[in-house]
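Support reply, case 0932

Customer input (verbatim):
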Amino acid sequence: MKKTGNVGVNNVDDKDKNNARDWEMLPPKEDEPVGKAVAKEVLSWVKTIAIGVIIGVLVVVFIVQRDNVYGDSMFSTLKSGDVVFTEKVSTYFNNFDRGDIVILDGSDMEGYDHEEYLIKRIIGLPGETVKIEDGKVFIKKVGASDFVELKEDYLDPGTTTTVMAHGLMEGYDCFVLGDDEYYCMGDNRGGSNDSRRMGPFKKEKI
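Our regenerated output:
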């Protein structure tokens, strides 16, 4: 009998044969219509743009506000024509500190008849007493018995703080702030319309 050698053929069982036949019988995949592919791409871009717009609106409404500076009441910290971006998160948690620069709504307040918002610096906090004397600002904190001079390194050298006649008549030179009131002034003390004339700003105005 003639012997035969191994030829290196892989054995295939019946299950594999069936799978192979099924694969061979699959119809060729047709290309996706061009119009449908373009529509899907456009829809994807529209979704991306819409999400970006929504995020942008939420940021502007609830987180950051862009403001233009007009006038020199905050000179030289801020100059007319400057653009500032203010965060709004603090307004939701009443998280205001002395020295913060804030945007204020002066509508319906004494001594202010403009539509524009004000930009000032917080000097006195709720419950404190603010006293302006001898060109300086003094603060008596809640529970304290003595006034302490406020160190204002952000002011230009030689700046003095005074109160005009109307403010003196209203008692704004020595004023006790209520639980929701803030005493605010501009850094340009000689050219700022602020709490020395308008009185304190309530929390809802910030």
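We compared this against your earlier run and they match. Two observations from our side: The beta strands are 64-68, 83-87, 101-104, 118-124, 129-133, 136-140, 148-149, 174-176, 181-185, 201-202. The helical segments are 14-25, 34-62, 89-93, 165-170, 195-198. Please reopen the case if you see a mismatch on your end.
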